[in-house]
Design a protein that fits this description.
The protein is of the alpha+beta class. It has a single domain, classed as NADH Oxidase, CATH 3.40.109. It has six helices and five strands, in the order αβαβααβαβαβ. Strands 1, 2, 3, 4 and 5 form a five-stranded antiparallel sheet that branches. Helix 3 packs antiparallel against helix 4. The radius of gyration is 19 Å and the shape is globular. It starts with a helix and ends in a 33-residue tail after the last strand. Bound molecules: flavin mononucleotide. It is an enzyme of class 1 (oxidoreductase).
Length: 198
């Protein structure tokens, strides 16, 4: 696979079976996150690996968080999330170590975390693993964030479910990039994606 083939064939999947990456593979995968653009070198990315027996502990904390966020959350949703988090081969918690007082704005710090996560998704794919980035209301729960090591002002950016794809990756039709691209020639641009011709 050429590097371009690799980038153009990545797709998310939540149909994941063991194995998850080994420790050595995870070290290599996480090294790609250190290549994310990072204004001010603040290194706001944080990664928490959850595997083996700790998966059930995380699943239980997730369910408790769901109830905190919505006391009326239906039982079946709790069960679904419990099963998911306790059986996925590996979860990588994406944390954001944020510095609101810093002159680099928070949004730039958060984007750096996202850029790192994208590198991780691509690296997983390059090594033949599958993954999906998920969030949900629970990522806004400060109690859960603290339980995972991110007391305010630090936050969660979501979870990467990681494993080996159970089936060939889905290949949903992707948008035409021309829809989202314009060439600036001195006037404000329009995009076909917004129903306007450039
Ligand atoms: C910050 C963030 C949070 C996301 N949260 C969820 C989620 O909770 N549930 C979900 O099904 N997809 C979620 N997604 C979307 C999936 O990760 C994925 O991008 C989507 O299924 C499309 O697949 P693709 O990556 O192959 O285009 C999230 C994506 C991002 C960037």
């Amino acid at each position: 696979m050429t590097p371009m083939d690799m980038l153009l064939s990545r797709a998310s999947t939540d149909r994941l079976k063991p194995p998850a990456p080994s420790e050595a593979q995870m070290a290599e995968i996480l090294a790609t996150a250190m290549r994310a653009p990072d204004h001010g070198k603040l290194r706001p990315w944080r990664y928490v690996i959850v595997k083996d027996a700790a998966r059930l502990l995380l699943a239980e904390r997730i369910v408790a968080s769901m109830v905190r966020m919505d006391p009326d959350v239906p039982e079946f949703k709790k069960q679904k999330r419990l099963n998911r988090f306790s059986t996925i081969p590996m979860t990588l918690v994406l944390g954001m170590h944020l510095r609101p007082e810093h002159k680099i704005p928070l949004w730039e710090q958060e984007m750096t975390v996202a850029a790192g996560a994208m590198n991780i998704l691509n690296a997983l794919h390059a090594l033949g693993f599958g993954a999906v980035w998920v969030s949900g209301d629970v990522v806004n729960d400060p109690v859960l964030a603290e339980e995972l090591g991110f007391p305010a002002p630090h936050k969660l950016a979501g979870f990467l479910f990681i494993g080996t794809p159970e089936a060939p990756l889905p290949s949903p039709k992707r948008p035409d990039p021309a829809q989202f691209t314009a060439i600036w020639q001195g006037q404000p641009v329009n995009f076909p994606a917004d129903g306007k011709t450039p």
